[in-house]
C-alpha cells in the first residue's frame, strides 16, 4: 500500500499487484501491474477502528456503572438484613416484657378461680 498524490494534489492510498508473465520455456518476459485506489477502504477501516474504540470505552463505562450498582445493592442488602435483625430482636424483647406481667396476672386469676379467699388472702390481694 502506498500513499500517493493525485494530479489535484490530494492524497490517496493505492494497492499495487505485480504479476510476472512467463513464456513457454519458463522465462519471465514482462510484468502486469494492477493498481487499485483503496482510499475509501482505508477510510472505512479507520472508521471501524474508531467505532471499536468508542464501543470498548462505552463497555468499560457500563461495566464500572454495573459494578458500582452491585456494590450499592450489596450494601443495601446488608443494611436491610441488619434492620430486619434489629426488628426481630426488638419484637422478641417486647414480647418477653409483655408476657412476664401477663403470666403473673393469669396466675392470680387462676388462684381466684380456685375458691373463696380467707381474710388473710384478701388483705394480701388488696396490697398488690
Helix/strand layout:
Elements: E1 2-5, E2 11-22, E3 28-37, H1 39-114, H2 119-127
Antiparallel strand pairs: 1-2, 2-3
Helix fraction? 55-70%
Quote the average pLDDT.
Answer: 89
The number of helices is: 2
Oligomer: single chain
- The low-confidence parts are none
Report the end-to-end length measured between terminal Cα atoms. Answer: 108 Å
Shape: rod-shaped
Beta-strand residue fraction: 15-25%
Largest sheet: 3 strands, antiparallel
Find the count of extended strands (DSSP E, 2+ residues).
3
Would you tell me the structural class of the helices and strands? alpha+beta
Written as H for each helix and E for each strand, in order along the chain, the element string is EEEHH
Strand order of the largest sheet: 1-2-3
What gyration radius follows from the Cα positions, in whole Å? 47 Å
